[in-house]
Specification:
By secondary structure, the chain is α/β, with parallel strands linked by helices. The chain has helices at 8-20, 40-48, 61-77, 91-106, 122-130, 147-153, 176-186, 201-206, 246-250, 274-311, 334-343, 367-380, and strands spanning 84-88, 112-116, 133-137, 158-164, 189-194, 221-226, 239-243, 254-255, 263-264, 315-316, 324-328, 349-352, 355-360. Bound molecules: pyridoxal-5'-phosphate. Pyridoxal-5'-phosphate binds at residues 34, 90-92, 95, 120, 122, 164, 168, 193, 195-196, 227, 239.
Amino acid sequence: MEDKGIPSEQIYQMLRKYKEKDLTHRSGRILGSMCTCPHPVGVKAYSMFLESNLGDPGLFPGTKALEDEVIIMLGEILGKKDAYGHIITGGTEANLMAMRAARNSSGIKDPEIIVPKSAHFSFKKAAEMLKLDLKMADLDQEYKMDISSVEDLISNKTVAVVGVAGTTELGKIDPISDLSRICLENDIYLHVDAAFGGYSIPFLKDIGYDLPKFDFTLPGVSSITIDPHKMGLAPIPTGGILFRERKYLEAMAIETPYLTEDLQSTVVGTRTGAATAATWALLKHMGREGYAEVSKKCMEITSILAEGVEKAGFELITNPELNIVAFHSSEIPVEKLAQKLEDKGWAVSLASYPRAIRIIVMPHLKVEHIEAFLVDLESIK
Ligand SMILES: Cc1ncc(COP(=O)(O)O)c(C=O)c1O
């Protein structure tokens, strides 16, 4: 650290040098991320609330009112206007909170949770931190959670079952209706991880896409993760967790002796209000139609990409249900393929099961990016 501070202009110049090394979403080269260019309305709203701390809401009642309204709006999107929840850092924290709520409210000793093999690794973190025994349910032929495997794994120690609406690697929607029925029958907490699909499935359904139910309209669903910083176009870090009943927040409440609120259920203490302001602004600005348009475009580009991949002689792992395309080649190992694509400037990612190149068609990807990618892909074959 310097003894004497450096003038601001010089600092910005130094920062620009570092920034030049980063990839940008705008370049269209990031193909393997669930993040995207934040929408300018969200960025402006975010910057207006940089000093507000929702960890101490009595000092920021305006921001707290925004959070309450956001939870109502997200609840509407997810089939229950009067849900309870918070805007937090992302899907990992949301899933951690859901597992904590399920464990704490169960009173079961040596608790177990059941997640599909396709679940995000945040459940491994949650299991480790909360001392939960993690049981992995098999997937069916469409890479969705296999219901009979779930039934086999349920025991008198099961505190939660998790279904995913928009899996991280393949964008698949687990059979949440069946999980809802099974969890009701067995009196087990059901969490739906819709970090990715929560901001697209409801809007795609609005405009006629035939996608299954996954939300609070299914009576067994206890909580839902929904991430504004993925398909919601909010700046990172912005996640959302919604609970059907207040008792789940209460089951995690810790006394906060020196703050303006008495109890706190979130993992973090100091919590930015900026993420909430951005989410509020974007929900109001985009409306259902705006978000439907964004998801529709992504789905259309997904179809173009999937078709192009097949035409180029590669094999799709599965038909895309949401805006993710995964493929492999019978001739080139995926690691090698990924390397060749990287050499051509494409930042793809790898799916682990099955091993595949995975492309998430996020809103920053335009048709021209995908066309350029397909030209390079064909040249690799
Ligand atoms: C389905 C799902 N859940 C949770 C997460 C974790 O979200 P985050 O990276 O915002 O913590 C992801 C991230 O990709 C995800 O795809």
